[in-house]
């Protein structure tokens, strides 16, 4: 039976009415990728207020790796509801916060003593990671990467690369942030090719210390192991080892931002494991809470202890409901085969997407790691000019035909897949079928010529 069931044109009348109310009540800065309003959700599907049912390939922007309303998560939250909602861990702490910190210290990469603090969002966690790194090293500088996304608060905007819509109009940003090119092999900043490049982009960090910022002034380098908003860019396997070796040579910490890549999305619990690295500080959020707001900074114990008592915290940080949900999420990854499932989903996507690439010249690149997959759309393989308008048309076609997708990339020309890992093979194939139809429709309208196989 098809998961997608459309009863009205999209958007339906009730969603249209809500959009009118929203326009009067909510500022335009809070944009949304579809014109539908959700009434309920389960596993890998959503139903809107008009009774239309969709497949969800966005997963709340990566927050629902274990699926919508996962039964174990719901039960854990219900159990916590029966006891208490909020006390503030900084006033009257509770066992679940400590137990979750212990679990995070166990499951994150690194065979060394660790400690963990919980906050509310990925951006808040990144802010705290920067504070901790500066407190420990007594240095101000932070090096981030082109095409990176770390959040929308002021410090994280300074770290984020993409200007519109994230940064435009909000300057000035905090200082002592420096940016270098990422290992974006499809659009190499140095016009080189891997592996003959010998990871020039990673080794170039030494040049940055000579020409941009002195190494003794740098507290940390922060990077997403797989870029999220930047376009699901997975660097070559040995990239981070070179980068981290250079960091440690100069007493610089490495912060892995695993807000989007964590909790099974790449086929390992953390993408850092796929690269064989042990970050000094690791930032998590999104799917950690199974649909509830929660984020964490986990790191080497001596580094985490650098801030003085009271230097870290927040009124709702480590909310007991979210801690209960996160413990259930970690239990699920221990019990279920979700990591293998992520790799299966990735293989399934790659098989279809490589065929699209042979069929249509608009599909310039197919990339990803595990269940974190994407296609980059271009005007032609030769020019690599971003097909931004066509990407918008494809995503619109998708939601009008029952598939929720989201874009990414500095040029907004990447379609990414963040489908819950509990989706069935039939649901994956159904969703990819809609995406394939969208590509066919847009390419036909554009008059694109199919590539030769």
Give a written overview of the molecule.
The protein has 453 residues and is α/β, with parallel strands linked by helices. It has two domains: 13-56 and 337-446, Alpha-Beta Complex (Aspartate Aminotransferase, domain 1), CATH 3.90.1150; 73-335, Type I PLP-dependent aspartate aminotransferase-like (Major domain) (Aspartate Aminotransferase, domain 2), CATH 3.40.640.10. The chain is 37% helix and 16% strand. It is built from 15 helices and 15 strands. The longest helix has 22 residues, at 338-359. The model is unreliable at 448-453 (pLDDT under 50).
Quick description:
The chain is an alpha/beta fold. Helices cover about 35% and strands about 15% of the residues.
Mean pLDDT over all positions: 96
- End-to-end Cα distance, whole Å, is 33 Å
State the secondary-structure class.
alpha/beta
Helix content: 25-40%
Strand order of the largest sheet: 4-10-9-8-7-5-6
Number of domains: 2
C-alpha-based Rg, rounded: 22 Å
Order of helices and strands: HEEEHHHEHEHEHHEHEHEEHHHEEHEEEH
Largest sheet at a glance?
7 strands, mixed
Outline the secondary-structure elements.
Blueprint: H1 13-25, E1 38-42, E2 45-48, E3 53-56, H2 59-62, H3 71-81, H4 95-107, E4 114-119, H5 122-137, E5 141-145, H6 154-159, E6 177-180, H7 200-203, H8 205-211, E7 218-223, H9 239-249, E8 253-257, H10 271-274, E9 281-284, E10 295-300, H11 301-304, H12 320-335, H13 338-359, E11 363-369, E12 372-377, H14 388-400, E13 403-404, E14 406-408, E15 414-417, H15 425-446
Parallel strand pairs: 3-13, 5-6, 5-7, 7-8, 8-9
Antiparallel strand pairs: 1-2, 2-3, 4-10, 9-10, 11-12, 12-15, 14-15
Helix pairs in contact: 3-12, 4-12, 13-15, 14-15
């Amino acid at each position: 039976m098809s998961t997608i069931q459309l009863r009205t044109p999209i958007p339906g009348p009730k969603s249209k009415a809500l959009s009118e109310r929203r326009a009067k009540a909510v500022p335009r800065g809070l944009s949304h990728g579809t014109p539908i309003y959700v009434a309920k959700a389960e596993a890998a599907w959503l139903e809107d207020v008009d009774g239309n049912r969709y497949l969800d390939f966005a997963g709340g922007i990566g927050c629902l790796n274990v699926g919508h309303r996962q039964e174990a998560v719901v039960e854990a939250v219900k159990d916590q509801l029966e006891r208490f909602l909020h006390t503030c861990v900084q006033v009257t702490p509770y066992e679940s916060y400590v137990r979750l910190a212990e679990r995070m210290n166990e499951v994150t990469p690194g065979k060394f003593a660790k400690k963990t603090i919980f906050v509310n969002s990925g951006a808040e966690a990144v802010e705290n990671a920067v504070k901790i790194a500066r407190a420990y090293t007594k240095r101000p500088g932070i090096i981030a990467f082109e095409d990176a996304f770390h959040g929308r608060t002021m410090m994280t905007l300074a770290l984020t690369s993409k200007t519109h819509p994230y940064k435009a109009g909000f300057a000035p940003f905090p200082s002592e942030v420096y940016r270098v090119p990422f290992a974006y092999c499809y659009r190499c900043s140095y016009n080189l090719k891997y592996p003959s490049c010998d990871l020039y982009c990673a080794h170039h960090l030494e040049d940055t210390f000579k020409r941009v910022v002195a190494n003794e002034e740098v507290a940390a380098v922060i990077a997403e192991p797989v870029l999220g908003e930047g376009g699901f860019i997975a660097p070559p396997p040995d990239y981070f080892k070179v980068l981290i070796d250079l960091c440690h040579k100069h007493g610089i910490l490495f912060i892995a931002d695993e807000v989007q890549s964590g909790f099974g999305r790449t086929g390992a619990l953390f993408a850092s494991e796929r690269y064989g690295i042990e970050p000094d500080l690791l930032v998590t959020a999104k799917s950690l809470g199974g649909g509830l707001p929660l984020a964490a900074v986990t790191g080497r114990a001596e580094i985490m202890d650098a801030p003085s008592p009271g230097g870290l915290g927040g009124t709702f940080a480590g909310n007991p409901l979210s801690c209960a949900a996160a413990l259930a999420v970690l239990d699920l990854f221990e019990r279920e085969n979700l990591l293998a499932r992520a790799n299966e989903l990735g293989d399934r996507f790659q098989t279809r997407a490589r065929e699209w690439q042979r069929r249509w010249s608009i599909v310039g690149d197919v990339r990803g790691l595990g269940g974190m997959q994407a296609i980059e759309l271009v005007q032609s393989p030769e020019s690599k000019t971003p097909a931004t308008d066509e990407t918008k048309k494809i995503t619109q076609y998708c939601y009008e035909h029952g598939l929720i997708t989201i874009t990414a990339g500095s040029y907004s020309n990447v379609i990414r897949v963040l489908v819950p890992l509990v989706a069935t093979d039939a649901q994956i194939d159904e969703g990819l079928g809609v995406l394939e139809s969208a590509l066919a429709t847009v390419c036909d309208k554009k008059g694109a010529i199919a590539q030769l196989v």
